[in-house]
Amino acid sequence: MHELTSSTLDAARLTQALGDSAGAYELRWLPVCASTNSVLLEFPAPPPGAPATVLVADAQSAGRGRRGRAWLSQPGAGLTFSLRRSFDLPNMAGMTGLSLVVGLAVAAALENLGAAGLGLKWPNDIEAGGCKLGGVLVELGSAQGAVWAVMGIGINLTLPASLRAEIDVPATDLATLLGQPPEREAVLAAILVELAGRLAEFERKGFAPFAGAWQVRNVHAGREVRIVDDGRVVQQGLCLGVAADGALLLQTPAGVQAVIAGDVSLRAAGD
Ligand code: ATP
Ligand code: BTN
């Protein structure tokens, strides 16, 4: 992994855009790698309290979504990066809801840049107008009494038609939402700025303080949804929102059921 000095990213512009948040991060870059999450999973976790390691790649040859699904991108088409951070927590029980907090930070950042109508699909998608704009992949572990997370974020900046055709869900990009192609440094800095405070608050208080803000952006709020596990519908009900631990709350004939993210997927009942 390289320092940013010889990067295709403009390090000076990035540092300036980060402002007071610059100290929260140590920035790295690779022209290409399999997956920024995979690289950071092999990288030592910074100790609790130390700056988070951020790795940006121009291209990923094997970008990952959840459960072995692929995240597709190309140089110039998207922003693909991951952060590795330790959390001063006794065990992983306190980490539930982290991917929702990351989604909230991404949505706030993109809105600050001028994107309107952003919503979140539990547990890890950023959407606009029913199309997928970005995704979050959080992977967790623990070592020597500390808990760490690798948080991967992929955002479509300017999708060429050829790449759009390869994506098997309705997708959109920031260029469409903003009316012009965004600068990768500005998008990256805006997300890192919004993440810094939220990650610190999450470390202190867990997901509970974020549940209300998440519900405001919940694209399925008040809608009938299905929970799907490996193609099989395992639950169906009215989407009420999220619990204090980030679990999805469904009103079902059997009462209110909490669904934890695990390996399941959320779909609108008609889909
Ligand atoms: P879930 O609801 O379980 O999260 P998902 O379909 O969102 O399901 P993920 O693993 O979250 O699945 O994301 C990977 C999926 O995202 C891929 O299977 C593909 O459908 C979609 N995808 C891949 N690349 C892109 C991209 N650049 N833009 C939008 N969507 C993409
Ligand atoms: C999803 O929607 O399932 C999550 C997609 C996450 C993609 C990002 S791109 C940077 C990081 N590296 C990966 O391999 N995946 C995440």
Protein model, in words:
With 271 residues, the chain is α+β, with helices and mostly antiparallel strands. The protein has 2 domains: 2-215, Bira Bifunctional Protein, Domain 2 (BirA Bifunctional Protein, domain 2), CATH 3.30.930; 220-268, SH3 type barrels, CATH 2.30.30. It is 25% helix and 34% strand. It contains 7 helices and 12 strands. The chain has helices at residues 11-18, 36-41, 98-112, 161-166, 174-178, 184-205, 211-217; strands spanning 25-33, 52-60, 78-87, 118-121, 125-128, 131-143, 146-156, 224-229, 232-242, 248-252, 255-259, 265-268. It is globular and about 60 Å long. The termini are far apart. The mean pLDDT is 94. Residues 65-66, 69-73, 78, 124-125, 132, 135, 156, 167-169, 171, 265-266 line the site of adenosine-5'-triphosphate.
**Unreliable segments (pLDDT under 50, ≥5 consecutive)?**
none
Largest sheet: 7 strands, mixed
Count of DSSP H/I helices? 7
Let me know the average pLDDT.
94
The figure for the number of domains is 2
Q: What is the CATH superfamily label of the largest domain?
A: Bira Bifunctional Protein, Domain 2
* Helix/strand structural class: alpha+beta
| Overall shape | globular
Instruction: Give the total of beta strands.
Output: 12
Q: Ligands bound here?
A: adenosine-5'-triphosphate, biotin
Walk across the major sheet and give the strand order: 1-2-3-7-6-5-4
Quaternary state reads single chain
Q: Give the distance, in angstroms, between the N- and C-terminal Cα atoms.
A: 42 Å
| CATH fold label of the largest domain | BirA Bifunctional Protein, domain 2
Which sequence of SSEs, written as H and E, runs from N to C? HEHEEHEEEEHHHHEEEEE
- Work out the strand percent: 25-35%
CATH class of the largest domain: Alpha Beta
- CA gyration radius, whole angstroms: 18 Å
